[in-house]
Amino acid sequence: MHVNFLFYNFFFPKVIMSGLQQGVALLISTFHKYSGKEGDKFTLSKGELKDLLNNELGDVLGKSNDKAALDKIFKDLDANADGVVDFQEYVTLVACITMLCNEFFSKK
Length: 108
Fold this sequence. Notes:
Layout: H1 3-11, H2 19-34, E1 43-44, H3 46-61, H4 67-77, E2 85-86, H5 87-107
Antiparallel strand pairs: 1-2
Keywords: Calcium, Metal-binding, Repeat
Domain EF-hand: 65-100
Pfam families: S_100
């Protein structure tokens, strides 16, 4: 778990978070689990994004070492073309994946 989530639970141990609140906390902690290993702690480098995608979404997206595919995903996510993926760009990815999963499971 990420430090912020632990901090929250330490200072507010009797607060029971709803499922959605837990999801938000998990979304944040997952980003920070990978960000900052190669640079700015508030962004994901291409290598950090690859690790996040393979480790956290590999079962959904398929684990890949395809450099061209990773380059395309990274370029598409990096909306401001600053060479890193910030939290807002990461949330956009998660939202798109969530929408696709919802559509898939709604059709069954």
